[in-house]
């Protein structure tokens, strides 16, 4: 199985992203600035 997308809700997005990237030895592939339209951070 290959996970292409993951959705999480977190109080401190940057810390969670950093922790997950370190845990799985991956980098964020893409930040979508368009989601701000919906009141979200990506």
What does this structure look like?
- This protein has one helix spanning 13-24.
- The protein is mainly alpha-helical.
- The chain has a domain at 1-28.
- The termini are far apart.
Secondary-structure blueprint:
Blueprint: H1 13-24
List keywords for this structure.
single chain, 42 residues, mainly alpha, 1 helix, 0% strand
Q: What's the end-to-end separation, in Å?
A: 24 Å
Task: Describe the main β-sheet briefly.
Answer: none
Q: Helix fraction?
A: 25-40%
Q: In one word, what is the shape?
A: globular
Task: Average the pLDDT over all residues and give the rounded result.
Answer: 88
Unreliable residue stretches: none
Summarize the structure.
The protein is an all-alpha fold and 42 residues long. The protein contains 1 helix and no strands. The chain has a domain at 1-28.
């Amino acid at each position: 199985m290959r996970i292409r997308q993951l959705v999480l809700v977190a109080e401190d997005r940057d810390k969670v992203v950093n922790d997950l990237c370190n845990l799985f030895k991956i980098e964020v592939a893409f930040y979508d600035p368009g989601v701000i339209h919906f009141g979200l951070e990506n």
